[in-house]
Amino acid sequence: MAQMSRFGKLPQLLILLLLHLSVFASAGTIAGRNGAKNSRQAACTNPIIRKEWRTLTQEEQLDYLSAVKCFLEKPGLTPASVAPGAVSRYEDLVVTHIQQTMDIHFVGHFLPWHRWFTAVYEKGLREECGYKGAQPYWDWTLDVNPPSNWAKSPVFDPVYGFGGNGAFVESNGPNDVPGRTGGGCVADGPFKDMVIRLGPMDDLSGNPRCLHRDLSPYFAGRYLGMNQTILTISQPDFGQFTRVNDGGPSFDDSGLHGGGHYSVGGTFGEMGDLYASPSDPIFYMHHTNLDRVWWSWQSRDLQNRLTDISGPQMLMDYENLQAGNVTLDFKMSVGLNAEDVTVRDTMDIRGGYLCYDYDSLY
Ligand SMILES: [Cu+2]
User: What is the annotated signal peptide range for this record (predicted)?
Assistant: First the structure.
C-alpha cells in the first residue's frame, strides 16, 4: 500500500509538474513568439516600397545605378584565403552564392534564400552606399510582346538602365541557349567597364573579364510571358508552385527562374552561369520579380501561405531519398553578409525581420 501510494503519488506529482512546466513553457513560447512577432510587426509599420524599373523617375534610376557602382567599389570583407578573386562588397555576396550554389537551387528553400539574399543586397545598397529607395523589380512580362521587343526593354537602356546585349559570338554548341543573339562584352551603359573576377562556375580564384550578355528574345517570349506567370501563381500549394517556378534543368523545361537567367545570359553571359550569376547586377532585378511572383502567390491566401513551405533540403531530392523536406525552422546562411536566419524569418515580407512591400502584384 505504502509503496503503491509512493509510486502512485510520484507520477501524479510528475504529471502536475510537467503540466505546470508545459503550461509555463507554452505560455512562455507563445508570449515570446507573439511578443517577438508583434514587436517585429510594429517595427514594420513603414515598409519600403519596391517598384517596377520603368516607373521610377530618371533621377531614381540613376540613384540606384550609382549605389550599385558604389557597392562594386566598396572594399570587400571576404578573406583572400576564402576567395582570392573577391575584392568588393558586391563580390562578398557573389562569393556566398557561388559557395552555396548546390545547396540553394532546386530545393524547398530556393525562394526563401533568394528573397533574403536580395534583401541583404538592398540593405547593403541603403546602409553602405546611401541609397534611399527600395530594390526595384523587373516585370519582364511587359517586354515580351512581341519577343522582338526584348532588347528594347527599359532595363537594357544605356543611360537609364543596365546597358544592353553583347556583340554576337558565333557558336553552335549542343547546349546553346535557343535563340541567343549576343555573347560578347556589354558594350554600353553603366557596367560596360565592369570587371568580373569571380567564376566562371565555382572558381573563386579571380578571372578578370568583362560583363557578358547573350540575350534570347525567343527564350524570353517562351518563358517570361503572362501565360507562364499565371501558370506559376495558380499552383495550389508551395511545393507545386516552387517546382513550376524552378522548371527542370533543360532548356525545354524552363520556368520563370531559368527564363530570366537564360533570356539575359544566354550561353555566354554571366546571368546564364548558375554559380556566378549575381555578377550581373540584373540578377537582382530578376530575382526581385521572382520574389514578387512568390508574394503574389502568397497574397492570394495569406492565412495559409505565410507558413506554407515544403520541398527538398537537398538538390532535386524530390523523393526525399537523401534528406527530408525543408520546414519553417530550416536554417539558412549568407556567410559574412548577415546573421543566419530560418526560413520562418523570410516568409512575410512585412514580418519585421523583412520590411518591404510591392507597389503592385500579379
Ligand atoms: Cu541563385
Answer: 1-27
Compute the distance from residue 15 Cα to the ligand 1 centre, in Å.
Answer: 50
284 CA to middle of ligand 1, Å? 10
For residue 277, CA distances in Å to 122, 144, 283, 287 come to 17, 22, 6, 11
Query: How far does CA 6 lie from the centroid of its chain?
Result: 60
Q: 278 pLDDT exceeds 80?
A: yes
Ligand 1 centre distance from Cα of residue 351 (Å): 23
Domains with residue ranges and CATH for the chain: 53-358 (1.10.1280.10)
Contact in structure between 199 and 207 (CB atoms under 8 Å): yes
Q: Give the range among 2-11, 64-73, 222-231, 302-311 with minimum mean pLDDT.
A: 2-11
Q: 531530392: which residue's cell?
A: 317
- Please check whether residue 180 is in contact with residue 267, taking contact to mean a CB–CB distance below 8 angstroms: yes
**Could you tell me the distance, in angstroms and rounded to a whole number, from the CA of residue 97 to the centre of ligand 1?**
6
Q: Output the CA 191–ligand 1 centroid distance in Å.
A: 21
- What is the share, in percent, of the chain residues with pLDDT greater than 90? 86
Cβ–Cβ < 8 Å for 304, 102: no
CA distance 201 to 271: 11
Distance 255 CA to ligand 1 centre (A): 14
Residue 4 Cα, ligand 1 centroid: separation in angstroms?
A: 64
Burial of 250 per CB tally in 10 Å (0-12, 13-18, 19+): exposed
The Å distance, Cα 104 to ligand 1 centre, comes to 7
Query: Which pairs with CB-CB distance under 8 Å and at least 24 residues apart come from 23-32?
Result: none
**Average pLDDT rounded to a whole number, residues 90-100:** 98
pLDDT of the residue at 248:
87
276 CA distance to ligand 1 middle (Å): 8
* Residue 303, H or E segment: helix 302-305
